[in-house]
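Example 9 (inverse folding). The structure is encoded as follows.
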């Protein structure tokens, strides 16, 4: 008879080693998820640990886009993954869509025998999917997305234990994603204007101090544009405050589209806007203000409401260090330049 003593003695040790690896991985994931509030970083950590523990050939994490009710690939790794990153799946479509809709984990040992499997991703990536485990990211009864693993390394098949492990990791991940989104929303509310989604006055005041210090240290100009909309009160009085709010949103979109990513636009209050322009001379700031003035005066506002309003703005420009030496002085100089326009022609740009 063959001697099975060595084999029998190794089985408990192998099982213990495997369980210790699982515990260590969960511990590492737990530490990582509680040490970061960046969603991208969280997702990359999770997917790295999953790949080590469960060894899929391809794996992906899809998040639910609440605006379109579709799943989009936030992370896709493996053969042909770059070809499916722009693919979107409807809720209920394919295995991932089914899991998102039903909010239930799913093990598919053989995709050829499961009618829920969709070949759309395989056709795009030229990859052959044989087996899948897919689990939902659920928190407070809401599905945030799914994690999907495809084809185990060395042509093995995923089993029920793999599904349990992945489900547990998905629970960790869902909580971390919700926390990160909540903190990001809180941060956004503290620095942005709720109506226009531009920065608010609180943020501008603190950022202006920082940018002034940088301008002093590196000896460059820092410019500020002060914009006040002309006759905005007439819009509110004639068409109501709701239409006035929609018009302000349209103005903010024009501003955001014309300034650089390094510039900062802020709703200063009511129908007043400030635009902070780092490393920008007064001359160049005046050119940017003129572009904004032209775009606003040529735009037809509130077309969806059938109002078709026209509008203009009065602009003031001031710069550090030529016009001011501190934050309050810079805002004041730009404000005074704007009021010179307001009290004369309107719809123009004036420099301090």
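The amino acid assigned to each position is listed next.
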């Amino acid at each position: 008879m063959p001697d099975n003593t060595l084999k029998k003695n190794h089985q408990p040790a192998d099982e213990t080693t495997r369980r210790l690896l699982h515990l260590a991985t969960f511990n590492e994931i737990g530490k990582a998820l509680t040490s970061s509030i960046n969603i991208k970083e969280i997702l990359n950590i999770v997917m790295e640990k999953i790949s080590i523990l469960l060894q899929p050939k391809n794996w992906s994490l899809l998040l639910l886009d609440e605006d379109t009710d579709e799943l989009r690939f936030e992370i896709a790794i493996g053969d042909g993954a770059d070809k499916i990153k722009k693919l979107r799946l409807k809720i209920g479509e394919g295995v991932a869509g089914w899991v998102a809709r039903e909010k239930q984990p799913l093990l598919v040992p053989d995709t050829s025998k499961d009618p829920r499997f969709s070949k759309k991703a395989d056709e795009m990536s030229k990859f052959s999917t044989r087996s899948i485990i897919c689990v939902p990211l659920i928190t407070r009864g809401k599905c945030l997305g799914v994690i999907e693993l495809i084809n185990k390394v060395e042509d093995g098949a995923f089993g029920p234990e793999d599904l349990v492990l992945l489900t547990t990791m998905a629970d960790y991940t869902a909580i971390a994603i919700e926390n990160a989104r909540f903190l990001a929303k809180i941060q956004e509310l503290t620095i942005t204007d709720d109506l226009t989604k531009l920065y608010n006055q609180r943020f501008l005041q603190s950022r202006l101090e920082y940018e002034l210090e940088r301008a002093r240290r590196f000896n460059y100009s820092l410019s500020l544009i002060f914009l006040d909309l002309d006759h905005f009160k007439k819009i509110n009085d004639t068409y109501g405050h709701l239409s006035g709010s929609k018009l302000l949103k349209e103005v903010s979109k024009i501003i955001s589209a014309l300034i650089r990513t390094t510039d900062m636009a802020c709703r200063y209050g009511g129908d007043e806007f400030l635009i902070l322009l780092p490393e920008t001379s007064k001359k160049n700031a005046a050119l940017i203000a003129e572009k904004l003035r032209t775009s606003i005066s040529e735009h037809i506002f509130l077309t969806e409401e059938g109002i078709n309003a026209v509008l203009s703005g009065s602009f003031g420009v001031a710069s550090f260090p030529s016009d001011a030496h501190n934050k309050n002085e810079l805002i004041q100089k730009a404000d005074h330049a704007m009021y010179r326009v307001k009290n004369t022609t309107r719809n123009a740009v004036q420099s301090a």
